[in-house]
Each structure stands twice: as C-alpha cells, then as structure tokens.
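Journal club side-thread
Mid-discussion, someone asked how the predicted structure for our own chain would compare to the paper's figures. Pasting it here so we can look after the session.
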Amino acid sequence: MMNTPVASKTLVFTVALNGYHWRYGELIRSQRRYAQRHGYQYVCVNRPRINALGLETAWLKLSLALNALEAGYDRVFYVDADARIRENTPSLDTLIKPGKYIYAAQGFSGRINSGVLLFTSAGPAKLMLSQILDNIDCTLPEADDVGWGENGHIIHFLTRWDGFQELPPLWNNNHSAELADYIRHYSAGPLRAEFPVPPSRQIPAVLFGKLANLLRRVKRLENNRRTIKQQLPRLTDCALSHFPLLTNPTNAK
C-alpha cells in the first residue's frame, strides 16, 4: 500500500497586493524556492488585486497569520514581498527556542521590523496576535509609533512580552550591504537602491496603486485606524477565499 504524503504544517507566505506581485516577482520566487527546499507550504497573497486600504494593507499579514495558526499550522513564517531569501538559508527549526512564540529582527531604525515574522502554534502566539489586532485603534507611545501600518503595534506589544524572541539581523537585513545575510530586505532603508525595479514592473504597480486610491475615494474611506479595523475583516475573508491553503494545512499540492 502506498503511503499518502503528509502535507507540511509549516506555512511561508507573503502579501503582494496592488501590483506588488509584479514589482517584486523575482524576490517572491526566491521565497517560493526556500519553501520548496524545506518542504514548507508557500502562498503569495496577490488577491484581491485592488483594495482600498493602501499602505494599511500591511495589517493583513497579522490577520492571515492568526487564521493560519487557528487552522492548525505548527509554524507560520511571514516575509515581505520586497525581501529575498538566499539559497543557503537554513530551516526554521534552527530558530525555535523554548518559551518563545513570536520571532522578529531589528531593522535599520534599531526597532523591530515586521517584514519578517515567525509565529508558532502555541496558544500565547495566537493570544498576542489577537491582542494586537484588537488594539488597531489604540494610540501608541511616540517611541513605538512609525506613523502607519502594523509595525508600531508590533514594536509596542512584542518588546514588552516574554514570549518574544529577537532574531539575528541576518534573518531580516535591511541595513547592511556587507552582511552575509539569509534574508535581504529592500525596504525603506539603506538597501532599497540595491534592487532597482525596471519600468516594466513599476508601471503595473503604479496603475494598481492609483486604482486603489480611486477606490478609497469612491468609498469615502478615511485612512485612519478605526477604518482599518472596520475594513480588515472583509479584506481578510476575501484573501482567504482566494487562497484556501492559508487555512488548510492538509491540502498538499
């Protein structure tokens, strides 16, 4: 009798809406290869193609991670679309420590950067994610606030929590061209110029961005935290409907 292959219960995913899957296609492919090398599931969330949250779409990573953990994944590894995973990057097993449930590295600002996040299936990770999402509309101390997105909330809640483990910078390097890193993150920092985007890949992203802005105006959405809290559940449900693997660890491809 042939044994049925067991689907991996480790998920690697990225979010690349509003044209980002075209702009960063080369980097997304590096993430997919990493997942394949280690037998992990991989999802690039590139639908819905357009949404009205603009930059605040960054919150989607947290709601999708929580859904994946609640669905039964043992580990969920999120990587921003503008990050390259090197061929020699080791497995996630090398990072896990007892009593630590959420992992992230510091960015060039000296604070936690949410472009690379590792979550485990333990209850504390799910409770912390729920707490962060429940507090989208809370005012952050100036020392934690970054002006937009979820990164300020990640800084605020995780740095005060015993279940957080800081990753070495080579797991999310957005500050040093000389570092022999595992993940190079071309975010808004010193390394962005290292990954120039050809016009052929910029144009679709720019057009989708303009369409998203138009959609926001049509819906008369104010880009504030209260609006995010109202819109995020609908965006999350839409993404989950397009990518059932996010909530079905047994659905091996």
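Post-session note: The CA atoms of residues 66 and 129 lie 6 Å apart.
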